[in-house]
Amino acid sequence: xxxxxxxxxxxxxxxxxxxxxxxxxxxxLDQLQALLDGLPETLEPLDVVMIDGYLCGVLLQPQPVPxxxxxxHIADVDGRAPPKRFDFAQMSALVQRRHAELDRAIxxxxxxxxxxxxxxxxxxxxxxxxxxVAGFATAVDTFTGLMDRHEAAILEPLATLYRHLDPDDxxxxxxxxxxxxxLAPPETLAEAVEDLVRSVLLIADVxxxxxxxxxxxxxxPPAPVRRPTGRKGAGPVPQHRAPGxxxxxxx
Length: 251
Fold this sequence. Notes:
Mean pLDDT: 81
Shape: globular
Largest sheet: none
Order of helices and strands: HHHHHHHHH
Number of strands: 0
């Protein structure tokens, strides 16, 4: 009787792609923030709230931005390389999962929950969403395709987002400032968060148009308005070494 060949060790299964891994858990969000907090003071990383707005700004570009380009600005807003000891692969895996989740939501015009933290009772809704908007502005300033092609067409939703920025940071943007003047500030954080999502989907209608059933109308947000994502009662949104908001160009 022939001797059976020796059994080979089982080959480790390949890790699931980012798109199939699902949303990040609270523990994974904390892990991502801890990775960024460990970077040296010489770099200016985004924090988790800014990352979320940044990813939306990346995904609204008329042409897809290669992952290696947009990932370079997570650990440092200017794209400087992190030290070799930094676990760039782990950061990349976590951020790409959120990128894939947002890409699906925006592509199908579906509601999504922004990574926005609830601040203390004295904070205004605008202060709570400011880091998210600053991250969005960072992407729009870094990757200029959206503004180069569609600045006039997205003026209203862009003003809804940028009204939370300091007007002094919006130099040479007269049309945008004039549009912002027509807008009342949100009364609640839920309203401010709804405005973030609605503005992203309105911009997507211009920069990432869809055909067929999706083009007939965007799903309305749930009623009553969904409670914003974030740890209830959490402290202020982390803003360690956060870059200042980008300055949109005038037409």
